[in-house]
Specification:
This protein is mainly alpha-helical and 106 residues long. It has 2 helices and no strands. The chain starts with a helix and ends with a helix.
Length: 106
């Protein structure tokens, strides 16, 4: 029974303290609320615009720039492969000539 009464007193005490704390709060005036709300909305819109422009820019660079880079890399890879093939072919010709010379000289 004492526990129940103690809990009731604690609840009453909590709500009294809560009410006392709310009285200490300095509430903003309607003008301050409007000014702060306007500032927040403006900053959010500016940030959204910046993110949109950056996204659009990077997307454009990605579609055009990456395709161009891919074509450059493919061209360079093809050149390397062609050089490797031509070097291999030249080496094979040199090796074949050397074998023929060795065969003839024997």
């Amino acid at each position: 029974m004492a526990k129940v009464e103690k809990e009731k007193k604690e609840k009453k005490h909590f709500f009294k303290d809560f009410k006392a704390e709310l009285k200490k709060v300095i509430w903003p005036t309607p003008k301050q609320v409007v000014n702060n709300t306007t500032a927040v909305i403006t900053i959010v819109l500016i940030t959204a615009l910046i993110v949109f422009v950056l996204d659009l820019t990077f997307e454009t660079l990605n579609t055009h720039g990456v395709d161009k880079l891919k074509s450059i890399v493919r061209t360079e890879e093809n050149n390397v492969v062609e050089d490797t093939l031509s070097n291999t072919t030249e080496q094979n010709v040199v090796d074949t000539n050397a074998v023929e010379e060795n065969t003839i000289s024997e």
